[in-house]
Design a protein that fits this description.
CATH superfamily of the largest domain: OmpA-like domain
Shape: rod-shaped
Structural class: alpha+beta
CATH topology of the largest domain: 60s Ribosomal Protein L30, Chain: A
Radius of gyration: 55 Å
Distance between the termini: 160 Å
CATH architecture of the largest domain: 2-Layer Sandwich
Number of helices: 7
Length: 284
């Protein structure tokens, strides 16, 4: 009995001891689990903070790099600006007096310009009056025979060779003398005018002794007109110039009969009075 009771008591003690050990083990496991979870949470927080620091460092590095680049550009710009200022200072030191005088003379130059503009306007008005007088004197003639115009401030009188000369000749026709007489009447009313008589031909080669080529023909036709204006209508030879242009200033193509007819012409050019123009440019 005693033996059986003792075995029961020992078994009961073992069970009781085992129960206590299991509870402690579970408690220990729970505690360990809490510690592990806490460590994982702390580790996660630390890793996140580390990543944030790394990102912030990268951003700061980029910012520093950008600032360094901007600083370098500013230094370069400052250097260029300094060089320009130095150059400007050299120009100013050597030319300041000249610039000052130029500024003082602006008013005088403006007066010159105004005088020139007035003279040009006056000249244009006289040219237009001359053209109207010429057209009025000549009357209703076909444009292909005689053309009067103003181009770039110069008066041109183009007379076709069909009207002035017989084909291949430099003898002036009677009808042409009547037209030249009307032109001379207008020109005589402007005794200070100077003019040039130009002979023009087409490109067909010309050689009839004593003339050798179109140069000779164009000059002979110009001098023939000049002699009529001088000898028959009394224009001053001191105001006349005769010139031959040959075939080298065409107004139309020489490939057609119509174009060649236009190119065969005598032109009277009213020369601008350059001496009066240059007097305006003289320093007063």
């Amino acid at each position: 009995m005693k033996s059986a009771a003792m075995r029961v008591a020992i078994f009961s003690l073992f069970l009781f001891t085992s129960c206590i050990s299991n509870k402690k083990f579970e408690q220990a496991q729970n505690a360990a689990r809490l510690v592990r979870d806490s460590l994982m949470s702390v580790n996660s927080t630390l890793q996140s903070s580390l990543n944030t620091c790394k990102d912030s460092t990268t951003a700061k590095d980029k910012m520093i790099s950008n600032l360094q680049t901007q600083n370098a550009l500013l230094k370069e710009n400052n250097t260029q600006a300094l060089t320009q200022l130095q150059n400007l200072s050299v120009i100013t030191s050597t030319q300041a007096e000249s610039i000052k005088k130029s500024m003082e003379n602006i008013g005088v130059k403006d007066m010159y310009i105004m005088d020139l503009q007035r003279e040009m306007a006056k000249k244009d008005s006289l040219n237009m009056a001359l053209v109207m007088n010429l057209k009025g004197a000549i009357g209703n003639m076909a444009d292909e025979d005689i053309n009067i115009k103003v181009d770039k401030g110069v008066v041109f009188i183009d007379i076709s060779d069909k009207l002035l000369f017989k084909s291949g000749s430099y003898d002036i026709t009677q009808r042409a003398k009547e037209v030249l007489g009307k032109v001379a009447t207008v020109l005589k009313n402007q005794p200070d005018l100077e003019f040039m008589v130009e002979g023009h031909t087409d490109s067909i080669p010309y050689k009839r002794p004593p003339l050798l080529d179109n140069w000779d023909l164009s000059v002979k036709r110009a001098t023939a007109v000049v002699r009529v204006l001088q000898n028959e209508y009394g224009l001053s030879p001191y105001h006349i110039t005769a010139a031959g242009r040959s075939e080298y200033q065409p107004v139309a193509t020489n490939a057609t009969a119509e174009g060649r007819a236009l190119n065969r012409r005598t032109r009277i050019v009213i020369l601008p009075q350059l001496d009066q123009f240059f007097k305006l440019l003289e320093t007063k």
